[in-house]
Amino acid sequence: MKLNTPRWWYAREPRHASVLRFVLKPVSWIWAAATARRIARGTPVDPGAAVISIGNLTVGGSGKTPVAREVLRLLRASGVEAHALSRGYGGRLEGPTRVDLTVHTAADVGDEPLMLALDSPAWIARDRVAGARAAAQAGARALVLDDAHQNPALKKTLSLIVVDGETRDGEWPFGDGSVFPSGPMREPLKAGLSRADAVVVLLPADLGEADPELVETFGALPVFIARLEAAAPPPPGPLLGFAGIAKPWKVERSLAAAGADLADFAPFPDHAEFREQDLRFLADRADQFGARLITTEKDWSRLPPEWRARVVSWPVKAKFEDEAGFGELLRRVTSPSA
Asked: Which strand (E) or helix (H) includes residue 15?
């Protein structure tokens, strides 16, 4: 059974859920040690193409997929044949498989690969090396890896860390720094940053600027600011929103900031499988308010086909403030002489 992400994970002060944090600490030590051992024992393979890793240091909710889509767009706009490569979390296929939007569903390849395949060739593979080699053989000059910072299988040309820039109301992207399950971290902050080449701080559309203290956290690493923007405004009239992502409250906040008339909002666990009874409940609830159902593009891709016509998909995109500077970084690591 999937559980909702605890909001106390992202509270900077450890006094929130202090007893539960304490109880879970020993499991966190085991998790951190296992991650460090796996990374240390890895022998990265060069697949014959530039490898750009889009990762994070927490278990979810940083905005990796929108950043990966924008990286793919920038690379392809500059003439680089760039393909996406994902593990295909939530899908049944092991791969290597090239995602075909006319054939595959989220049940086959996962929701994130479907989103990535909207803009560029995308592959899924449980075996990252096999997937990377298949993409390179198919003509990929650059591979954009979604969620691979803790995976040492491939030799990375550029390792980007995506960080949620929301720091209002006591929220902090790393919580109190505790590793899963007593906090949101996949590994200690210092260890994760030591393998990064640059950081992308992803800001909500309504946040004026990145918190200077957060930016200082990354030391000498280059920091690029990106903003999560709506690809289109929410439709007029009452709306009932729902989302099954790591931080569903971010969707509620983003919809409200974009001017949506939100009658209600329902959070679900990350990568939730929406059952018929869940959707009927949401539809009945929306009827009470005379509202339309709205969800994220990622969640919409997991809906049964018969429900997609009844739910509005609300897409968002990442937009870099210094697009030229970020594009130059990508150019340097994908040029033939790199």
From this structure: none
